[in-house]
Amino acid sequence: MTILHIDLETVPSQHPDAREQARQSVRPPGTLKREDSIATWWAESGPAAVEDAYRRQALDPAAGEVCCVGFALDDADAVAVVRTLEESERDFLLRALKAINALLEARRPDPSDPAAPWFDGVRPHLVGHNIGGFDLPFLRARLWVSRIKLPGWMPGPLARVGRDYGDTMVLFAGLRDKISLDRLCRALGVASPKADGTTGAAVLDLWLAGRHTEIAEYCARDVQAVRSAWRVMTGEGCEPWAA
Question: Do strands 125-128 and 165-167 pair parallel, antiparallel, or not at all (unpaired)?
């Protein structure tokens, strides 16, 4: 079975009106009733509240956008494709999908092989951390927004974890609980991608500053960490035992 480990990095909407939309969603505390108190709150706390609301768009597939896709096939090196500042999300998504498809196409058997006619490309088993709760639905939504047909290897909205894709968070914590990738890696004794202090919260600032190599390296570390955790939990490299 070919496993495609995948991870996304996202940013808030890049539409010119995105911050104004965020501002409209912000409300002063309900305890403030007087107009002068509300005005003071807007002057002192409003800008930070609007900025926080704007940045939270990166977690909302209806508003946020994809800026990096990291992936690795089986034992291959992790690759991360980063969107340029001048690139539309649609153009970026097409570029990222083409990069993944190129790797899958390279796994296609020799057409002269007698068994080849039935083969319709490699359909990998996707694996990620919280992939069912974030990466897959976010990527699907942004492909729909961009009017891009979902690739055949992507599980659909009704896909089931464990059957159609693998999720390291669910595998460790179950369907009801959660665990961060950093905590999971530390628990399993594998290298954490967050060890240098970089987190997803830093991606927007790094991206706007043009520090795209740092984003690519961070995303690739996420992919590598997911792969290491997945292998531990599925028994690869673990000590066998006898009853």
Answer: parallel
Phi, psi angles (nearest 5°) of residue 90: -60, -50
Per DSSP, what are the bridge partners of residue 9?
68
Q: Is 197 buried (19+), middle (13-18) or exposed (0-12) by CB count in 10 A?
A: exposed
Residues 131-167 pLDDT 10s:
999 999 999 999 999 999 999 999 999 999 999 999 9
Dihedrals phi, psi of 5, to nearest 5 degrees: -80, 135
One-letter amino acid at 190 equals V
Domains recognised in the chain with CATH numbers: 3-167 (3.30.420)
DSSP secondary structure of 199-225: -GGGHHHHHHTT-HHHHHHHHHHHHHH
Which residue's structure tokens are 């068994």?
115
Closest by CA to 18, choosing from 80, 48, 62, is 62
* Structural contact between residues 12 and 18, judged by C-beta atoms closer than 8 angstroms: yes
Record the pTM. 0.88
Of 51-55, 147-151, 196-200, which gets the smallest average pLDDT?
Answer: 196-200
DSSP 8-class letter at 100: H
